From TrEMBL:
One of its GO terms (molecular function) is manganese ion binding. The keyword Secreted applies. Disulfide bonds join C32-C49. Pfam families: Cupin_1 (PF00190), RRM_1 (PF00076). Residues 216-255 are annotated as: Disordered. Residues 216-229 have a biased composition (Basic residues). This is RRM domain-containing protein. GO terms for cellular component: apoplast. It comes from Acer negundo (Box elder). Residues 256-334 form the RRM domain.
Length: 336
């Protein structure tokens, strides 16, 4: 009896281990190509499998990830996922891949993949990507071409194209079908709707504001192989931002106070000081922020010690790229 009691914990541990490995389990043979005709299929896990004797190289090949996607929608984002539904050879192999296209300023809204860890590779553009863990800690990073960012399975995450040109990400998952839950849709776009009074209490909003959010037309993920957002009504084509014509920067005129605009919302006062201190001593920095949220509005003011220092900074930095954005630098007209 004692030996039974001694072995019981190990049995329970082994059982728990086998249950934990049920997520995208390893295939029981070299491959298992998905097939819809179940009469001649062998079921292992995931989808029914084609008889290995009739499998071909085409079952393990897919094309099209080189084709740019239409980002002409309100979020400026679109993506195509190659999972087991569109690529049968992935069945039971625990892997899938996606291409994501972003217009300038495009956003992959906060979302979750319940069944897969995500590995992001920047192919083109400048991105701000991040995820939030179970302690509500944000892990965010500005990414450039060639950078790789990993997002643990099931955590809320997002990507934003902070550059002035189109951007492309290639994303892989350790699941043949990682799933997609877009938070805005799962909260305000459910069918039937969640009780607006419950949402108003949870988000500390007015009930009418919640009802307005629930009534909004929103982008819904396309099923099967396409996970991007598609517009239900035409929206204007986004074009890269460019400085206004015939600007007057104030070079040569008296003044050491500068107006700086167009920088990333993630830019801090310390970043501005480092950027401008090479042209002279920075005496004062003020980033304009939203009164309610405290978030940067992407412009601000700073002062240099001499008029000549301000002129040098304008000549060197005005209409140049910084962290994927074109910044404007000119003499402040407000006298700040």
């Amino acid at each position: 009896m004692k030996s039974v009691n001694f072995l019981l914990p190990f049995v329970l541990m082994a059982l728990a281990s086998s249950l934990a490995s049920a997520y995208d389990p390893s295939p029981l043979q070299d491959y298992c190509v998905a097939i819809n005709d179940t009469k001649t299929a062998i079921f292992v896990n995931g989808r029914f499998c084609k008889d290995p004797s009739v499998a071909t190289a085409d079952d393990f090949t897919s094309s099209g990830l080189n084709i740019p996607l239409d980002t002409n929608n309100l979020v400026g984002f679109n993506a195509t996922l190659l999972n087991v539904d569109s690529f049968p050879g992935l069945n039971t192999l625990g892997i899938s891949i996606a291409r994501a296209d972003f217009a300038p300023g495009g956003v992959s809204a906060p979302h979750i993949h319940p069944r897969g860890t995500e590995l992001v590779l920047v192919q083109k553009g400048t991105f701000y990507a991040g995820f939030v863990d179970s302690n509500n800690t944000l892990f965010g990073k500005i990414l450039y071409p060639g950078d790789v960012f990993v997002i643990p399975r099931g955590l809320n995450h997002f990507q934003v194209n902070i550059g002035k040109t189109d951007g492309v990400l290639y994303v892989s998952f350790n699941s043949q079908n990682p799933g997609l839950i877009t938070l805005a849709n799962s909260i305000f776009g459910t069918n039937p709707p969640i009780d607006p009074y419950a949402l108003a209490r949870a988000f500390q909003l007015d009930v009418n504001a919640v009802k307005q959010l629930q009534a909004k037309k929103r982008y819904s993920p396309r099923r099967r192989s396409h996970i991007g957002y598609h517009s239900r009504s035409p929206s204007p084509k986004r074009s890269p931002w460019s400085p206004p014509p015939n600007r007057r920067t104030g070079v040569g005129k008296p003044g050491k106070n500068l107006f700086v605009a167009g920088f990333s919302f993630l830019t801090t006062e310390r970043d501005l000081e480092r950027k401008f201190s090479r042209y002279g001593r920075v005496r004062d920095i003020h980033i304009v922020r939203d009164k309610r949220s405290g978030d940067s509005r992407g412009f601000g003011f700073l002062s240099l010690q001499k008029d000549e220092d301000a002129d040098a900074a304008i000549r060197a930095l005005d209409e140049t790229e910084w962290n994927g954005r074109v910044i404007l630098v000119e003499k402040s007209k407000s006298g700040r």
